[in-house]
Request: fold
Amino acid sequence: MHYKVGDATIKEILEQVKAWENTLKDIKKDRESLQRYTRGLKDKELILIGCGTSYYLALSGASVYMKITKEKARGVPASDILVFPYSVFARDSKYLVIPISRSGTTTETVLAACYIKEKLGIETLALSCYENSELANLCDRKLIASGASEKSIVMTKSFTSMLLIIQLLAAIKAGNKEYEEQLLSLPEKGKRILKEYQSFTKDIAYDESLNKFIYLGQGPFYGLASESMLKIKEMSLSHSEAYHCLEFRHGPKSIVDNKTLVIIFLSDSGKDYETTLLKDIKDLGAKTLVICDRATKEIMDLGDYIVELDSGLPDYARLILYMPITQLLGYYRAIFKGLDPDNPKNLTQVVIL
Reply:
């Protein structure tokens, strides 16, 4: 069969909604067991660890878990566990560690899980896409995004599916039925967003005047902004950066010019601050892509490009709906530059040291 550049990546971006459906079905089957399991997590701080995309997933996942369960959670690079473990773990505190790895074989994450379990005696819960991976077999328990394994090097549907698992875990832990129902509505909304905005996003990616991409997100959206920054960097070898929205004024804005596209993950919680920031960004001469649930007239006036998710869901429920847009932006930018997003320069699917 003739290979077409980027075949695997675009297929996985477009089919990720099916992976969400599979994730929801799998968790539903395991719901009673997870309810019993989460009852034993009282007063344990959740530490989510990973590398690269999985670390950014950990950042957003920790924010979700804290908001929904009202209990402590942090996202930490897996390498910090190996090099500076006591900057993470305090004496006489209780923890559950969730090591995250698509393949379940990422060296730093597997080594960190071994150290946590064998040296510190802390309970571990693996999050992966492979049932019988090294990490899944090492940990005390596992959560598997069984329909989210990928052929491509860059992580797309695996990121959103594993984040959805963390959201569901938080909902079950908190006994929050309303939040759980909101998560069940995501696949249908995702299908509509992909259909409505695929060609729109391609047009943005093909803008030859752009040479810099800056992603801004606050709270749970910072992990998404960072992951989106990584996607366009990996696939298209483009200059990309990510910041918390309101940190952007404190130095990073110095690099903005008329060849910059600033992508902002607009939140309900911070919309007033973020709208004011958009005004400042426009004054600097940048183009703006605003991804929001619904745009006000002011946002419409400030955004060069507007994506309205129109989900009707709160910030913490609609997170994964943002990601297909930024994944497509990275993919189409690579195609525009004559690159193969299935085979990014210097990268392999798994980092094994």
